[in-house]
Amino acid sequence: MREALTAKTDKLEYVHSMLGQLRRMAADEQHEMLAYLIEMACIEANDILRGARPSRVRRNQRDSAA
Fold first, then answer.
1. What gap in Å lies between CA 16 and CA 46, rounded to an integer?
2. Predicted TM-score of the model (pTM)
3. Which residues of 24-42 are buried (b: 16+ CB within 10 A; e: fewer)?
């Protein structure tokens, strides 16, 4: 169980890192909206890593938000 959690954390850290690189690339090319949206995904990944947000949203929560 611990190994599965470590693998998930490793993957999420990788995603967070790649999002940071993509954000910088988009910003360098003056794609402000794209850079902003990628930054939001980067912040979300960081929040999940810190434990500030769940990694999943329950279906009824997601459906009621729409």
1. 7
2. 0.74
3. eebeeeeeeeebeebbeeb
Q: What pLDDT was estimated at residue 63?
A: 59
Integer CA distances (angstroms), 28 to 15, 21, 34, in order = 20, 11, 11
Q: Which residue intervals of 29-58 are DSSP H helices?
A: 32-50
Place of tokens 């999943």: 56
Task: Report which DSSP code applies to 29.
Answer: T
Query: CA 12, CA 29: separation in Å to the nearest integer?
Result: 26
> Average pLDDT, stretch 2-28?
93
In 3D space, the residue among 19, 62, 7 whose CA is nearest the CA of residue 43 turns out to be 19
Cβ count near 19 (within 10 Å): 19
